[in-house]
Amino acid sequence: MSFEGLIVILVSAAVVNNFVLIQFLGICPFLGVSKDIKSSAGMGFAVLFVMVLATIVTWPIQIYLLTPNDLGYLQTIVFVLIIAALVQFMEIVLKKYIPALYLSLGVYLPLMTTNCAIFAVALMNVKENYTLVESIFNSLGAGVGFLLAMVLFSGIRKHTENADPPESFKGAPLTLIAAAILSISFFGFSGVIENLFG
To answer: Virtual CA dihedral for 78, 83, 86, 90, nearest 10 degrees?
Structure first.
């Protein structure tokens, strides 16, 4: 595939088909960790790292082990186990080298094991018949999109904390409305891919 094609995959995964704001996957950490910009960026980078690593590990296993041996029915179990191992590795690294981030992410770090956005990227790479390089660009774009959504939403939440909304909008309702508005803004990118190199 050409470099332009790889850029299309990257941009598409990051903004046009953003896993959080367009496909509504990975909402749990999106809503749970986005109160603080540092925690949001940390979670975003952690998810990006795990997405890319999961792709690098799952793609060859699917192509060279599961598919040739008619073991496709084991795909979900194998992918979840690989993602769980990578998340455990991420936990160990963060706990040892960045303890403040490890503590601020709290329960959401182990929940990355079942983060459907990470799992969805691994499945999408197989479903779309991407090569390994295309799969890496897709997972990189999805991770950048996740990071972008986390950081943008963190900024929005910082402003809504200082707002004085009506009583019925305080707390979760205002958070969900802000998330919906951010999601709608990403729908504006829907025509970008067709005209990216046009």
So the answer is: -160
